[in-house]
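Box 4.2: Ligand-aware structure prediction
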Amino acid sequence: MAGPTNDDIQDKLLDHTYDGIQEYDNPMPRWWLLTFAGTIIFSVIYLFNIGPVGNGKGRVADYDADMAAYAKAHPALTGSDMSSDQLLALAKDHEALEEGEETYRAYCASCHAPDGGGLIGPNLTDAYWLHGGKITDVYTTVTNGVLEKGMPPWGKTLNTEQLSAVVAYVSTLRGSTPANPKAPQGTLVTP
Ligand code: HEC
């Protein structure tokens, strides 16, 4: 560091006295002042999103690029991730149904009732559907949710296996007779 050392600074006693206290004139070393000025210059560049820092695009474009890369690497789940045949096969698979039932009791029963009869959420046992009654429609609804109507999107909370299993389980509720069925909502879907 090429700053002044103790050798080139003569401790100089300033000639004022306050309540008997005197002070030395010890300026900050040059390297410190340059670093300090550098942070101020950097903050202006950063504040106005000027390019030459980082990869040269500025922090806003940088952030947008990072977010776009993330979105590309983690595409939103859609109903098309599982085919109707795959889901219908799961609906006959004991293990998958058990897992689906477990997930249903943990995450869905509070709004759709333990037997699927409906509470806050619609009856899942009848043939009337607001968002489509095909098993792939149900998968899409469960994955993406209908947030503005109070149905949470489960695609972020549950993994693909849990989603498929719970959708398969829900499909087995259809045609059952719940204790307190909620009135049908939506349009009639005949299988
Ligand atoms: C916080 C309450 C709540 C929870 C928890 C919840 N739902 Fe829902 N669900 C709703 C509401 C409310 C609707 C109706 C949305 C609308 O009116 O469009 C709905 C709609 C649905 C539909 C569409 C029904 C139709 O008629 O098209 C399905 C399928 C469904 N939920 C399945 C599930 C599953 C499976 C889970 C658990 C993983 C779950 N829900 C958890 C509140 C909930």
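In the box above, the bound molecule is heme C. The two ends are 81 Å apart (CA to CA).
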